[in-house]
Design the sequence.
């Protein structure tokens, strides 16, 4: 662990005391504070008026009961969360996650990350995150709809296009957003398209939003590789996950001439010596909603499925962790380094442990942290909000062109900030500092609120 600046240490101690046992939240805060020593040394005023302490404390946390009736007529209870972390730059903005692992600490870590990610994107959006410990796996369409409606019956009073604008995350895609937006519309009697992003194209969604996180991560890593005169062309890539982020990362990498050698879900991973057949992955995950093990069964020769085990054992040049937090450990990082990986781009939020990041950086592996590399999703959400505000809808090409230029902007902002603060090539430091400065400047301008 890097020693914290003496001005930052008390803020971190307070986070640990006040949020006991919320390890992912501590990890996310620590990672940002470790980067801020150099900023405070240059600009001591940023530590005035308890600004650091305020940035680490969510503005509002909402926890609520979500009762719903399953297909057998039994009443089920889940817990719902929305952490409205910071609105200094705009309305709270961030996704909703449905996964059994969700608790307030997970949502807080995600809301904290989101605040800096959104700031770094350069768009006028604050940070927030929500979710529930509801497990959508194996649930019928009717159960999903009733759950979404009950969840929104409570949450809707805390939302609004100028207040808080949710979107999807793990376990929440177009179908769930449709059900939640539908219930919001019904309860408020307002077709307020800008209150949700990731909507379907028929009712106010944006072209390229589905693809944006994966495409954006690929654009970011492309810029990072270009700094060392390299490209995706001919590179072997491993992309963990098989959700939206992973699928569209694979699609863009393939279009840049890279080969995807493996992908995964939470049960195991598939390796295809001929390169992953993306049309088949889409069919399995998006149409049939089945497990990735089906891939090997349907594909036959050349493809094999490994249950459990680590996808990071598969040799590759570029690793794109796109599943979930802390999925890539120190052990995995050592394996990737041993196998000659040159770059890592985080598609998920905080997928690498702190130890893994240190191993990559010490080995000179180019490392793109999630809050920069996966910001294309939320940036395109901000483009969706723009389209909704002007009652317009842009073409796919126009939207993707904006996404590509936003990702180049984020890349360059991280790289320049890292240079400016004496750590060239350190995208973690660059992303944390550049995101922090935007939030801090705005908070200072707004007074002690
Ligand atoms: N859940 C996504 C993220 O982690 C997207 C959030 C959004 O579009 O608001 O950034």
Sequence:
């Amino acid at each position: 662990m890097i020693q914290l600046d003496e001005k930052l240490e008390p803020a971190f101690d307070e986070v640990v005391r006040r949020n006991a046992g919320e390890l992912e939240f501590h990890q996310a805060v620590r990672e940002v504070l470790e980067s801020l020593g150099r900023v405070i040394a240059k600009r001591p005023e940023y530590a005035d008026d308890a600004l650091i302490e305020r940035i680490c404390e969510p503005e509002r946390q909402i926890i609520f009961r979500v009762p719903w009736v399953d297909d057998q007529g039994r009443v089920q209870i889940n817990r719902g969360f929305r952490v409205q972390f910071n609105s200094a730059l705009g309305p709270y903005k961030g996704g909703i996650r449905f996964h059994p692992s969700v608790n307030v600490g997970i949502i807080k870590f995600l809301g904290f990350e989101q605040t800096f990610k959104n700031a770094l994107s350069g768009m006028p959006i604050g940070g927030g995150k929500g979710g529930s410990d509801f497990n959508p796996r194996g649930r019928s369409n009717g159960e999903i709809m009733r759950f979404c409606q009950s969840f929104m019956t409570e949450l809707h009073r805390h939302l609004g296009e100028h207040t808080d604008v949710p979107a999807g995350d793990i376990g929440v895609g177009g179908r769930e957003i449709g059900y939640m937006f539908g219930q919001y519309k019904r309860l408020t009697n307002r077709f307020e398209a800008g209150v949700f992003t990731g909507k379907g194209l028929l009712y106010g969604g944006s072209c390229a939003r589905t693809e944006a996180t994966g495409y954006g991560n690929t654009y970011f890593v492309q810029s990072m590789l270009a700094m060392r005169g390299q490209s995706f062309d001919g590179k072997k890539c491993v992309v963990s996950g098989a959700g939206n982020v992973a699928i569209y990362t694979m699609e863009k990498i393939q279009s840049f001439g890279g080969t995807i050698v493996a992908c995964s879900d939470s049960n195991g991973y598939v390796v295809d010596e001929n390169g992953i057949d993306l049309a088949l992955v889409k069919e399995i995950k998006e149409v049939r909603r089945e497990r990735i093990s089906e891939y090997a069964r349907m594909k036959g020769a050349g493809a094999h499925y490994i249950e459990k085990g680590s996808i990071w054992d598969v040799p590759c040049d570029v690793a794109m962790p796109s599943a979930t937090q802390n999925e890539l450990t120190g052990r995995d990082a050592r394996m990737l380094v041993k196998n000659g990986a040159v770059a890592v781009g985080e598609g998920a939020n905080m997928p690498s442990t702190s130890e893994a990041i240190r191993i990559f950086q010490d080995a000179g592996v180019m490392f793109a942290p999630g809050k920069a590399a996966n910001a294309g999703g939320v940036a395109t959400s901000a483009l969706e909000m723009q389209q909704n505000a002007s009652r317009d809808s842009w073409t796919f090409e126009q939207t993707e062109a904006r996404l590509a230029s936003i990702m180049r902007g984020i890349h360059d902002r991280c790289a320049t900030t890292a240079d400016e603060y004496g750590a060239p090539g350190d995208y973690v430091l660059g992303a944390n500092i550049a995101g922090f400065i935007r939030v801090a400047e705005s908070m200072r301008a707004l007074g002690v609120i």
Q: What stands out?
A: The mean pLDDT is 97. The pocket of glutamic acid is lined by residues 93-95, 114, 167, 169, 197, 349, 377-378, 381 (CB under 6 Å). Residues 210-363 form a domain with the Rossmann fold fold (CATH 3.40.50.720).
